[in-house]
Amino acid sequence: MIPNVTKGERMAGLIVYLAGPGRSNEHTDPHLVAGSAPIMAWHNDDQLNRDAALSIARELDAAKNVLGTEVTGGHVWHCSLSLRAEEGDLNDEKWAQIARDFMDAMGFTEASGKAPVSWVAIRHGHSKAGNDHIHIAASMVREDGTKWSSHLDFKRAQDIARALEKKHGLEQLSPVYAARGLRPGEREAAQRRGAEEPERRSLARKVRACAGAAQDEAEFVRRVRRTGALIRPRYAAGRDDVVAGYSVAERPPKGVRPVWFGGGHLAKDLTLPRLRTAWHDTPQAATGAVAEWGAAARGRRPVHAGREAHEPDPQLWEQYSEEVARLRETLRAVPLEDHATWAHAARETAGAFAAWSTATEPTPGPLAAAADELSKTAQLRRHPVRPIRTVGPSARGASLVLMAAAMGGRGTAAEAIMLRQLLNVAKAIHDMHKASDDLRRARQIHDLVKHQLSHVAAALPHVPETSPPVDREAAEAVRASGAGQAPARPTGPVLPAKYEPARTHATSRGGSARPDIER
Q1: CA distance linking residue 361 with residue 411, whole number of Å
Q2: Nearest 5°: CA angle at 324, between 320 and 330?
Q3: What residue stretches are annotated with the MobA/VirD2-like nuclease domain (predicted)?
Q4: pLDDT of 89
Q5: CA gap 398, 212 in Å, rounded
Q6: Which residue, among 210, 77, 81, has the nearest Cα to 138 in the 3D structure?
Q7: Which long-range contacts (CB under 8 A, 24 or more apart) does 165-171 make?
Q8: Most buried residue, 26, 288, 391, 452, by most Cβ within 10 Å?
Q9: What is the band of 14 on the pLDDT scale with cuts at 50, 70, 90?
Q10: Burial class, 361, CB count within 10 angstroms (exposed 0-12 / middle 13-18 / buried 19+)
């Protein structure tokens, strides 16, 4: 069950919207399923109309308006509780139980030992994605005029949702990984601009691909520019030689303003401080990065040409395929609770698929879907306080060679072998989610392999079963993932991947006391 919390100031506007037809007439039969006793005494489960919605809003606002209590930032607390479409639907009685248990645990009711607040739970059919859900609207002013505390309410809602999943027999989801979704209306706005998909999503893949293929920050800037995207630095206050962050935009048609996104608004792991933990860090590299940032900001040609301007050595395909295979072997010994390591592996694998998609898919296809899906595991709710850089096996080399894959071609045997190795890592990530009871994420990865990446494999040359053992294992991983199987985790000593602390950037990061807060 997925909670989504928002806050505001207009109770009437929220309730009228929930009781109305929705933005695309997706609301059907809006009605109350639960609420505070005074409101439920006057309203039953009849279909709501505008007049009923306004009446309910007045009752929800009564304590605030009569007692004059003001809440900074708004007194309206709104939370949707939704199921995955694959879970099916619950009946009104079950949703009512869940809503009451949720509000008791959040401290809105008499169960808190304090005066209750006024609240309602409204159900109005499926979302556009087919999810069964309810909306809870509550005042943050209690009946005695005191305020309900919203301290850590986002985290509390997540923790309570996990507990209610167990209590009510719902699919149990993992609270560790947090994907950053699209904002309401973002998809429609992109369509009006004629974009194939929301720019936030396409830009995240390009940045992820270029970051994985680059060995330093300067190369990253040049690679992003080669994709056709616009990129500009965000300098530290009062400086033009210290880059604290960046923004990217798709190149718009002539006469149209670009839509810019900061790295942190693409994904949590795509902020500049996070990206820097994977690049070579020397004074010369930092100086070169500042020069390339300056050229990008002024729309000038790159200062230098690097690896991005040349085809990689064909022998690197075999080398990096073997390295991805070693990465998979390393993951066998990584504990489920080592979320940072799993996120790191998912980030690199997503980067490899993103690089392949950027090079070969004119419009988003299965490779883009793979990058988007695996990147969700890379989004930790809390990143390690001290960034780490792995010195073990890596999928970054795969990003380098896949960025040079032929556009529109049918692929090579080397690409077929690389796909198997990447699918083997994806299967490991699938098994981790399944063993952690994050069934939603495990099923999404399974569906991705079975229904999308299988088409990519079919278009590539056949790799004989007499290939080296690691390739046979990768093939078995594809079959097992397609069947939804999860091999048993090995027992024995745990040998995690080796790490070394990330060093501080010399020139382009200095001068900012908190470079990690870039958004």
Answers
A1: 12
A2: 140
A3: 48-170
A4: 85
A5: 9
A6: 77
A7: 165/1, 167/101, 168/94, 168/97, 168/98, 168/101, 170/1, 170/83, 170/87, 171/1, 171/83, 171/84, 171/87, 171/439, 171/440
A8: 288
A9: very high
A10: middle
- Taking the C-alpha atoms of residue 270 and residue 245, their distance in angstroms, rounded to an integer, is 10
Q: What is the sign, positive or negative, of the torsion defined by CA atoms of 270, 274, 276, 278?
A: negative
One-letter amino acid identity for 481? Answer: S
Distances (CA, A) of 355 to 51, 205, 368, 457: 53, 8, 9, 17
> How buried is residue 272: exposed, middle or buried, by Cβ count under 10 Å (0-12/13-18/19+)?
buried
Strands 133-139, 119-123: pairing kind: antiparallel
| Cα gap 148→171, rounded to integer Å | 30
CA–CA distance, 302 with 392 (Å, rounded to integer): 32
Beta carbons within 10 angstroms of residue 468's beta carbon: 12
Give Rg (Cα) of the chain.
25
Whose structure tokens read 């994977």?
278
Q: How far is 87 from 409, CA to CA, in rounded Å?
A: 39
Mention every residue, 6+ apart, whose C-beta is less than 8 A from residue 206. 224, 227, 229, 248, 354, 358
**Residue 70 burial (10 A CB sphere; 0-12, 13-18, 19+):** exposed
State the SS3 of 67-104: HCCCCCCCCEEEEEEECCHHHCCCCHHHHHHHHHHHHH
Tokens 């382009």 correspond to: 508
Helix axes 199-213, 217-226, angle to 10 degrees: 140
Element at 345 (helix H, strand E): helix 339-360
Condensed to tens digits (0 to 9), the pLDDT of residues 81-118 reads 988 776 788 899 999 999 999 999 999 999 989 999 99
What does the pLDDT read at residue 179? 67
> Any idea how long the chain is?
519
DSSP class of residue 490 equals: P
The beta strands (E) that lie in 38-195 are given as: 76-82, 119-123, 133-139
Is the pTM for the entire model greater than 0.70? no
Name all domains of the chain by residue range, CATH numbers in brackets.
2-167 (3.30.930), 186-500 (no CATH)
